[in-house]
């Protein structure tokens, strides 16, 4: 007997919410979009109705809906932990965009709420579903690289930096951007735990700004002896850039180059490749994969492959970066 699709309610009709809504409705056969909630007048209905769903201005109404089995949270990051808890208490399975909370205490409370309610909790670390990263992980797990020794992950956002540095919350580069890289490095070094970090960051697009950090490099030590670096920039004029590299005792694997295709144009300007200029462009298949995994986990009654524990581990590195920047010294990673 066919398993019915998971009925999903989406919270947040902003940029990433709009992308997730379209992916759920058009690219994930295991799921169906039934409701979109956003407090801004008309925002939810404008997104939902062309996709065959309905709009609500109230999260409470979405959580009380009988036609919602699971919730996808794409609201502001500061609301993630509270929304995870509310959804879990309403008996809904939960997919939350990263981070799962803005502190380790918030993330611990959110994952405890999901466990107490017996619902699935998945966090949106999309690189685990990008084809090249998946193949790299499989090679590492299979032992093709031998012992993992050095790792590198980077994220560079397109553009010339924030148009208004004052609206970027402090520590965003660690908690919102590099959080992906921290999870990627943990995943590509299976079985190991981060011990400590040294973080260096500054405002290079707005020198002297009191809170903006738009470039950062982090060095992470793991308990298996591996050393990793994570790098981020908010000002890559050439496009959105996500890459990784792992060096082992028996080989190396690299992934990501930012190009939209293998096409290269050779002309008077040189050798040119078209690059992606947004995460939803470069990683659309990864976004599809993570939402399909969530729907399948709900259908199969199992834990998703990315859990609240993974969210805690990645944010623990982000918090250690903040501690390192504050103290000017190496900082330990909480477990």
TrEMBL record:
Name the Pfam families on file.
GFO_IDH_MocA, GFO_IDH_MocA_C
Identify the domain of life. Answer: Bacteria
**Cross-referenced Gene3D superfamilies:** Dihydrodipicolinate Reductase, domain 2, NAD(P)-binding Rossmann-like Domain
Record has Zinc-finger as a keyword: no
Q: Which GO terms describe its molecular function?
A: nucleotide binding; oxidoreductase activity
Q: What name is this protein filed under?
A: Dehydrogenase
Which InterPro entries does UniProt cross-reference here? Answer: Gfo/Idh/MocA-like_OxRdtase_C (IPR004104), Gfo/Idh/MocA-like_OxRdtase_N (IPR000683), NAD(P)-bd_dom_sf (IPR036291)
Annotated Gfo/Idh/MocA-like oxidoreductase N-terminal domain ranges read 6-125
Which UniProt keywords are given for this protein, alphabetically ordered? Oxidoreductase
Q: Which chain positions lie within coiled-coil regions?
A: none
Domain (Gfo/Idh/MocA-like oxidoreductase C-terminal) spans: 138-329
Isomerase keyword on record: no
The entry sums up its family as follows: Belongs to the Gfo/Idh/MocA family.
């Amino acid at each position: 007997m066919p398993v019915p699709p998971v009925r999903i309610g989406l919270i947040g009709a902003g940029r990433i919410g709009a992308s997730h809504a379209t992916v759920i409705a058009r690219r994930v056969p295991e799921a169906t979009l039934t409701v979109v909630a956003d407090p801004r007048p008309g925002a939810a209905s404008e997104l939902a109705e062309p996709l065959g769903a309905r709009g609500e201005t109230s999260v409470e109404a979405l959580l009380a809906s009988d036609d919602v089995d699971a919730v996808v949270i794409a609201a502001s990051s500061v609301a993630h932990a509270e929304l995870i808890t509310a959804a879990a208490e309403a008996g809904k399975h939960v997919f939350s965009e990263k981070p799962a909370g803005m502190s380790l205490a918030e993330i611990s409370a959110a994952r405890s709420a999901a466990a107490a309610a017996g619902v699935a909790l998945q966090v949106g670390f999309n690189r685990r579903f990008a084809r090249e990263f998946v193949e790299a992980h499989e090679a590492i797990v299979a032992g093709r690289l031998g012992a993992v020794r050095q790792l590198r992950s980077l994220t560079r956002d397109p553009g010339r930096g924030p148009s208004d540095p004052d609206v970027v919350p402090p520590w965003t580069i660690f908690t919102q951007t590099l959080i992906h890289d921290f999870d990627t490095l943990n995943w590509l070094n299976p079985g190991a735990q981060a011990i400590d970090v040294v973080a260096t960051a500054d405002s290079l697009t707005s020198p002297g700004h009191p809170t903006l950090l738009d470039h950062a490099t982090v060095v992470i030590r793991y308990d298996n002896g591996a050393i990793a670096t994570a790098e981020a920039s908010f000002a890559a004029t050439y496009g959105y850039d996500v890459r990784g590299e792992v060096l082992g005792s028996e080989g190396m694997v690299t992934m990501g180059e930012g190009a939209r295709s293998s096409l290269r144009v050779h002309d008077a300007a040189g050798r040119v490749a078209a690059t992606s200029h947004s995460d939803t462009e470069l990683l659309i298949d990864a976004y599809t994969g993570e939402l399909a995994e969530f729907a399948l986990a709900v259908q199969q009654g199992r834990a998703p492959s990315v859990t609240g524990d993974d969210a805690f581990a990645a944010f623990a590195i982000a918090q250690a970066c903040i501690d390192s920047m504050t103290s000017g010294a190496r900082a330990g990673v909480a477990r």
